[in-house]
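This part of the workshop introduces the protein records we will be handling. Getting from the letters to the tokens is the skill we practise here. The record below serves as our worked example for the rest of this section.

…
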Amino acid sequence: MLIADAQRDVRSTFLGGFVGQLVSAVLWGVSAALATWGRPRQAIVVLIVGGFFIFPATQLGLRLLGRTWRLAPSNPFGQLGMQVAFTLPLSLPLVGAAALYRMEWFYPAFMIVLGAHYLPFVFLYGMPLFYALAGVLVAAGFAIGRFSPGPWHLGAWVTAVTLLAFGVVGRFLVSREGILGAVAPSRTPR
């Protein structure tokens, strides 16, 4: 399989990242709501523990949309996607260290790590849009952590909205490209 074909398969299967970013946006929104109206510990636990279920929830979302939820068997990018996914949990000790130093840095540090995690998606999906998503998250995380006198949960709200917006744009770009053919095979009895 050629690189361009593998990237097209990733874009088509995962709708340009739409479902995964929708799941992530909801998770960040729940964490933001808990940080705003609940307890900080709950907000942090929901984001960290919930993060481990983003990919299975994405697969479920794709199934509910009647779409295939896995890449073509000949696509070598399945392993790359898994490796990219593991960069985030392996970076959590850095986020924890920042939060132990200053609690207000939890979400900004997480935003920076999340943004960096999206850089390999440029190659994985073949979509330069992920450069912009990475840049927005890293820049916003840095700006909020360094300059914001606002509430500690501002970064969570910003991330939720950013992920949702970029997910919608990714979905639009893929639909405009006309490659949304990765529908789950019918299961008609023989």
